[in-house]
Design goal:
The complex is a heterodimer of chains A (813) and B (161).
Chain A (H helix, E strand, L loop, with lengths): L17 H5 L15 E7 L5 E7 L1 H5 L3 E6 L24 E2 L5 E7 L2 H9 L2 E6 L6 H6 L14 E9 L2 H7 L2 E9 L11 E6 L5 E5 L4 H12 L6 E5 L14 H13 L3 E4 L2 H7 L6 E9 L5 E13 L5 H10 L10 E9 L14 H18 L3 H8 L5 E2 L5 E2 L4 H12 L1 H7 L1 H6 L7 E12 L14 E7 L5 E5 L8 H13 L6 E5 L16 H28 L7 E3 L2 E3 L8 E2 H12 L3 E6 L19 E12 L6 E13 L4 H20 L5 E2 L2 E2 L17 E8 L20 H13 L2 E2 L1 E2 L3 H12 L5 E2 L13 E3 L18
Parallel strand pairs in A: 1-12, 7-34, 8-32, 10-11, 14-15, 20-21, 27-30, 31-33
Antiparallel strand pairs in A: 1-5, 2-4, 2-6, 3-5, 7-15, 8-13, 9-10, 9-12, 13-14, 16-17, 18-26, 19-20, 19-25, 22-23, 23-24, 26-27, 28-29
Chain B lengths: L1 E8 L2 E8 L4 H8 L18 E4 L2 E4 L12 E3 L12 H9 L8 H14 L5 H7 L11 H18 L3
Classes of the chains: A alpha+beta (813), B alpha+beta (161).
C-alpha cells in the first residue's frame, strides 16, 4: 500500500499521552501516594563478597516510627531470576552477599528518613570473602566460588556454535585479520529511579504498582517468591520514566515492598535513590572480544570466527541470552558464508549486567565494524563501498539459520553517503590531508558503520505455546473504542501505536481510542517492553482485534444498508459503500447496529512470532519476525593537544519497514544515536576498591545538549511482510552503528585506532604517543582470558538458503 | 523540628508544616501534592527537579522552602493558564519532545526562563540554557526543535500574555 492509502499511519501525530506529560499530570510510580502509606528502605551490603553470620534487627525495631523490619528469614526460601535457567537471586540475602549493594534487610516506617535511620540500626555480622572484580580475577581463582552453579568455576555460561568450517574459508581469503576489542559496561541511567508501591489488601489480594517494563514476568515471580496464588496478584506497570532495559528484571525492592505491606497492613512505597539505581544496574556487559575474519581482495567476507568474554557481575539476570546475543546477530547484516562463535559469561562481585538497548549486540558490532574498516584500509577499498557490496540478500537465511526478510541496508548506506557528502569529505579530511595542518588546528574525520537488530525475540523467556501479545478491543455505543493490552509504555509510544493502528482499521480518529495498558488483571498478556518487540507484536494483535470488530460491525451495517459486507469501508468515522457515501452510517450508529445484532462488541487479537528457531541447542536466541537495518556516518573533530573529541554531525538512515508515525520513529532514532554517543565517548560503569567509581549523575558522565551533535535522520521504508502495515523496530538498532562509526572517524582524522570504548581523551593521547614513537598507533586490550570454550555444536551453514516458503504463524487465522 | 512555611506557588498562597530540613522538591510533591516536579538525583546534578523562583530556574532538590518565602514559585502545573497550554507545552506535545516525559517538566521551566530573557534564542543559546537538564530519551533534537518553534510562535503573538 502507498502512504496515501492510509488515514492515520504515516502521519506525524502527537503521542496520545503527550498532553498529560507536558502538564505534569502523568503519574509515575513515585507519584502515587495512598492513604496510610508507609515508606520502605533496603539495607544493602557494604561488602562485595561475604558470608552473613547473623543479622540483628532489635535496635531498628525499637526506633519510634518503624512499622516493620524484615530479613531473608521472613520470606519464603525461594530464589528467583528472570530466566528459568538462572534462578540465583534472593530478595534479601540469607547466607551470602555477592556484591556491594546486595539487599540484606528492609524497613517500613512512617517516612523515608525514619526508615533510613532504622536501616543504620540493623547490625549485620559479615565474614568477608575475597572479592573477584574482573573476568581475569574470577578465572584465576576457581577456588573462590561466587555461585555453585554454572558451566564451571565462576563461569555462568559457556557456549560454542559452528556453522560450516571456517578454516578453509580463511585459507581461501586474500586477507585474514585477527583483532581484539573491549567494550566497557554502562548503566541505562533512566531519569526516573525505580519505584514501586505495594498494597496487600485485607482480602488477601496483592496489588503492585511498579516502574517496570515487564509486568507479566513480575506477576509470575511475585507469586513464586511470596508463595501467594498468582490469581491473587495484580501488577500494574505505571508509566515508565525511562527504561532502556534497566527495568526488565523483577527486583528485590518490588518483592520486599509486597512483604512489608503484608506485615504492616499498609500500602508501602519503595523508591530507589540514584546510587541504588547504579548498584541495581542490569546494564551493558563489559565484553572482551577476539574476532577473526577472512576477506577477498574485493572485500567479500569468506568466513568469521568470534570469541566473546562477558563480565556478568554477581547474578544471572538475562545473562544467558546476553551471551548468545554477542554472537548471533552479526551474521544478519552482511554475507558471511561460514561462522563460528564461542562465548563465556563470567561471574564477578559487581552489580549484575543485563539487557541495555541493543542487548549484547553493540559490543560485537563495534568489533566487526572496526575490523571491516581496518580491512578496507589494507585492501585500499572505500569502507562505504565495501559495505554496500557485502550487504546480505533479502529473504534468505544466514549461516546461523536466521531467516531474514526485507533488507533496506543498501539504501541506508546510499542515503547517508549522499547526505553526508562522504566521498568529498573522505578525500578532503583524513590523516593525509590533516597532516598539512598545524597541530593547533583541530583535525577532522568521517567514519561509517552499519548494523542490524531484531524486531522482537522469536521465543518467550519461558517456553510456551501461548501468544506473545494479546489485545482486547471493545466498541462502545458512544463510538469510542477501548483497547486493553499488556504493553508497557516506556516513552517509546506503545500506547499511541495501539491507538493509531486501531483507528486506522476502524476508520476513526486516534482520539476516539482509549488505551488501557499493562494491568495484569485487566489486560491480556504482553511479554514486555524488551527486544524491540512491542510495535510489531502488540501491533499485529491490535490489528487482528480491530479487524474482527470491524467484520462484526460490517455484517450489521451491511444488513441495514442491504449491501454485501465486502462492499463496505470504514473511514472518517463512518461505515458505508464508497460509491454511495451519502448513506454511510456514522461509526457510533454502526456500533449500535453491531451490538443489536451480536451483543457486546468485544474482540481479541493474539500474536505469536513465526516458529523459526534453529533445530540445534541455542537456536532459540536470534530468530525474530524481521530485522531492522541502520547505516551511520559520523563527522568529528579532535584536538591533538588535549585528545578531546567533538562530534559535529551524525547522519543516520534507518530501515524501519514502515514509519507508523515518523515523528516517533525519528525520536527513537535520535535517542539511540545519543545513547550510542554516550557509550562511545564517556559512559562507564567501573569500580574501584569494590565500589562503583562514580554512582552519581554528576560523576557518571553522560552527554548533555552541548556534547550531542546535530543528528540527521533518514527513514527508509521496505514494507516488511511480517510487520503491522510493514513496520519493523526503531528503538534499539540505530544505537549500534554509532559507536564504531565514531571510532572509524577518529582513525580517519588521526590515523589512530582506539579498540575499546569509551574513547576518552587519555586514550587518544596515548595512541598519538605510540604513533610518535613509531609503534602501532593503537590503544586496546593486550591480553585475553585463558578459558577453554566448549566443543562447538557443529551445524551446517544455512547461508544463502531461501527463506521458508510456508511460514507457520500461530493465531493468524 | 517542624516549621510553618508560607509559599506562593503558581500564584496561589500555600502553607505547610514541615521539618525544617525538608527540601522544596519534597514539600512541593509530598505536602502540596504537586507531583509534576520530579526527583532525578537529589544532588543537583540532573535538572529534573527544576522550578522557577521569581522567574529564575532553580534546582528544587537543593533549596529549602524557607529560602523561598515571599517569592514566586512556578512549577509545571502553573504553566498552562485558564485551560490554555503554554506555547512551549504545545510545541513539546506536537513535536514529540516528551518521550518518557520524566525530564519534561524541568526542561519546560528552564526553557520558559530562557525565552523570558531571550525571546529569539539561537540554537546554540537554547543548547547552553538546557545544558543542565539531562534527558536520556530524545537525544535533545526534538526538545531543541520544540523550544525554537515555541519561540517563533510567541514572537508571532501566540503568547498567552
Amino acid at each position: 500500500m502507498s502512504k496515501n492509502d492510509f488515514a492515520v499511519i504515516g502521519q506525524p501525530l502527537p503521542k496520545i499521552d503527550a498532553w498529560a506529560k507536558v502538564v505534569g499530570e502523568t503519574k509515575y510510580a513515585d507519584d502515587l501516594f495512598l492513604p496510610r502509606m508507609a515508606y520502605g528502605r533496603l539495607l544493602r551490603s557494604s561488602h562485595a563478597h561475604a558470608r552473613i553470620r547473623s543479622i540483628d534487627t532489635t535496635r531498628a525495631r525499637a526506633l519510634p516510627g518503624v512499622y516493620a523490619v524484615v530479613t531473608g528469614a521472613d520470606l519464603p526460601r525461594v530464589k528467583f531470576g528472570i530466566l528459568p535457567v538462572s534462578q540465583d537471586e534472593e530478595a534479601l540475602c540469607n547466607d551470602k552477599v555477592r556484591m556491594v549493594g546486595d539487599p540484606v534487610a528492609a524497613v517500613a516506617a512512617v517516612d523515608e528518613e525514619t526508615a533510613e535511620r532504622a536501616c543504620r540500626l540493623i547490625d549485620v555480622d559479615y565474614e568477608p570473602l575475597p572479592a573477584l572484580m574482573s573476568i581475569f580475577d574470577s578465572l584465576a581463582h576457581p577456588e573462590i566460588r561466587i555461585h555453585d552453579y554454572g558451566d564451571g568455576p565462576n563461569v555462568h555460561k559457556n557456549v560454542a556454535l559452528q556453522f560450516g568450517d571456517v578454516d578453509p574459508a580463511f585459507a581461501r581469503a586474500d586477507l585474514v585479520r585477527e583483532d581484539v576489542f573491549f567494550f566497557e559496561g554502562s548503566n541505562h541511567l533512566p531519569m526516573e529511579q525505580h519505584a514501586a508501591v505495594a498494597q496487600w489488601g485485607s482480602d488477601g489480594k496483592l496489588t503492585l504498582w511498579s516502574s517496570t517494563q515487564t509486568p507479566h514476568y513480575v506477576h509470575r515471580i511475585l507469586a513464586t517468591v511470596l508463595a501467594v496464588p498468582a490469581a491473587h496478584v495484580r501488577v500494574i506497570a505505571t508509566p515508565v520514566g525511562g527504561g532502556f532495559g534497566g527495568k526488565t528484571d523483577p527486583f528485590a525492592h518490588e518483592i520486599v515492598a509486597c512483604q512489608l505491606s503484608k506485615l504492616t497492613g499498609r500500602p508501602v512505597k519503595i523508591a530507589l535513590t540514584r546510587e541504588e539505581v547504579f548498584y541495581t544496574h542490569r546494564g551493558r556487559h563489559p565484553v572482551l572480544m577476539w574476532i577473526k575474519t577472512g576477506f577477498t581482495r574485493h572485500g567479500d567476507i569468506t568466513g568469521c570466527h568470534l570469541r566473546t568474554w562477558l563480565d556478568g557481575g554477581a547474578y544471572g539476570s538475562y545473562g544467558v541470552a546476553s551471551t548468545f546475543y554477542t554472537g548471533v546477530i552479526n551474521p544478519v547484516t552482511y554475507k558471511i558464508p561460514v561462522y563460528k562463535f564461542e562465548a563465556a559469561r563470567i561471574f564477578t562481585n559487581k552489580p549484575p549486567c543485563g539487557p541495555k538497548r541493543g542487548h549484547g549486540t553493540p559490543q560485537p558490532r563495534f568489533a566487526l565494524e572496526c575490523q571491516i574498516d581496518k580491512a578496507a584500509e589494507q585492501l585500499g577499498l572505500d569502507p562505504a563501498a565495501l559495505r554496500r557490496r557485502i550487504v546480505a540478500e533479502p529473504f534468505t537465511k544466514t549461516a546461523n539459520h536466521l531467516t531474514v526478510t526485507t533488507i533496506g541496508l543498501g539504501e541506508c548506506i546510499d542515503k547517508v553517503v549522499e547526505a553526508s557528502g562522504w566521498r568529498d569529505k573522505r578525500a578532503r579530511f583524513g590523516v593525509t590531508a590533516n597532516r598539512a595542518k598545524p597541530s593547533s588546528v583541530k583535525k577532522r574525520g568521517v567514519g561509517i558503520a552499519c548494523s542490524a537488530y531484531l524486531t522482537g525475540a522469536g521465543t518467550a523467556i519461558y517456553w510456551n505455546d501461548m501468544p506473545h501479545s494479546g489485545v482486547l478491543t471493545r466498541a462502545d455505543r458512544s463510538g469510542g473504542v477501548a483497547v486493553l493490552c499488556g504493553a508497557t509504555d516506556i516513552g517509546q509510544g506503545s500506547d499511541s501505536v495501539l491507538a493509531y493502528l486501531t483507528a486506522e482499521v476502524l476508520g476513526i480518529d486516534p482520539k476516539d481510542v482509549h488505551v488501557h495498558p499493562a494491568d495484569t488483571s485487566l489486560t491480556p498478556v504482553d511479554l514486555g517492553s524488551y527486544s524491540s518487540r512491542v510495535t510489531l507484536m502488540c501491533g499485529m494483535a491490535a490489528i487482528q482485534a480491530a479487524e474482527r470488530l470491524r467484520a462484526a460491525i460490517f455484517k450489521a451495517v451491511a444488513k441495514k444498508l442491504e449491501v454485501s459486507p465486502a462492499s463496505l469501508v470504514a473511514r472518517e468515522r463512518k461505515v458505508g459503500v464508497p460509491d454511495d457515501w451519502d448513506r454511510a452510517v456514522p461509526f457510533a450508529r454502526a456500533v449500535e447496529l453491531g451490538e443489536a445484532l451480536h451483543g457486546v462488541l468485544a474482540f481479541s487479537g493474539s500474536y505469536a512470532p513465526p516458529k523459526r528457531a534453529g533445530k540445534f541447542k541455542g537456536g532459540g536466541v536470534g530468530p525474530s519476525p524481521c530485522y531492522s537495518y541502520s547505516a551511520c556516518v559520523v563527522e568529528l573533530t579532535v584536538d591533538e593537544q588535549t585528545g578531546q573529541v567533538d562530534l559535529e554531525d551524525v547522519w543516520i538512515a534507518h530501515d524501519v519497514g514502515r514509519a507508523l508515525n515518523p515523528l516517533l520513529v525519528e525520536g527513537q532514532v535520535e535517542g539511540s544515536v545519543y545513547m550510542g554517543i554516550g557509550e562511545a565517548l564517556m559512559e562507564e560503569q567501573v569500580f574501584r576498591k569494590n565500589l562503583h567509581k562514580h554512582p552519581s549523575m554528576l560523576d557518571y558522565k553522560s552527554p548533555t545538549t552541548l556534547e550531542t551533535p546535530e543528528i540527521h535522520t533518514i527513514l527508509v521504508e521496505t514494507d516488511d511482510p511480517e510487520g503491522p502495515f510493514g513496520a519493523k523496530e526503531a528503538g534499539q538498532g540505530p544505537l549500534l552503528p554509532v559507536i564504531p562509526a565514531i571510532a572509524n572517524a577518529l582513525h580517519h582524522a588521526l590515523g589512530i585506532r582506539i579498540d575499546e570504548v569509551p574513547i576518552t581523551p587519555d586514550k587518544v593521547l596515548k595512541a598519538l604517543e605510540e604513533k610518535r614513537l613509531g609503534r602501532p598507533a593503537r590503544v586496546g586490550p593486550l591480553k585475553l582470558p585463558l578459558l577453554s570454550f566448549k566443543e562447538p555444536i557443529v551445524v551446517e551453514s544455512a547461508f544463502g538458503q531461501p527463506a521458508d516458503a510456508v511460514v507457520v504463524r500461530p493465531f493468524s487465522s | 523540628m517542624r516549621v510553618r512555611i508560607a509559599l506562593t506557588v503558581n500564584d496561589e498562597a500555600r502553607e505547610a508544616l514541615v521539618p525544617v530540613h525538608k527540601t522544596l522538591l519534597e514539600v512541593l510533591r509530598e505536602d502540596l501534592g504537586l507531583t509534576g516536579t520530579k526527583h532525578g538525583c537529589e544532588l543537583g546534578e540532573c535538572g529534573t527537579c527544576t522550578v522557577l523562583v521569581d522567574g529564575d530556574p532553580v534546582l528544587s532538590c537543593l533549596v529549602l522552602p524557607v529560602e523561598t518565602e515571599g517569592r514566586r514559585i512556578t512549577t509545571v502545573e502553573g504553566m498552562a493558564q485558564g485551560g490554555r497550554l503554554h506555547p512551549l507545552q504545545q510545541a513539546f506535545a506536537e513535536l514529540g519532545a516528551a518521550q518518557c516525559g520524566y525530564c519534561t517538566p524541568g526542561i519546560l521551566l528552564t526553557a520558559t526562563a530562557l525565552l523570558a530573557d531571550r525571546p529569539s534564542p539561537t540554537r546554540q543559546e537554547v543548547k547552553e540554557a538546557l545544558a543542565g537538564n539531562l534527558c536520556r530519551c530524545t537525544g535533545y533534537t526534538k526538545i531543541l526543535d520544540a523550544v525554537e518553534l515555541a519561540a517563533l510562535r510567541m514572537g508571532h503573538g501566540e503568547s498567552r500574555a
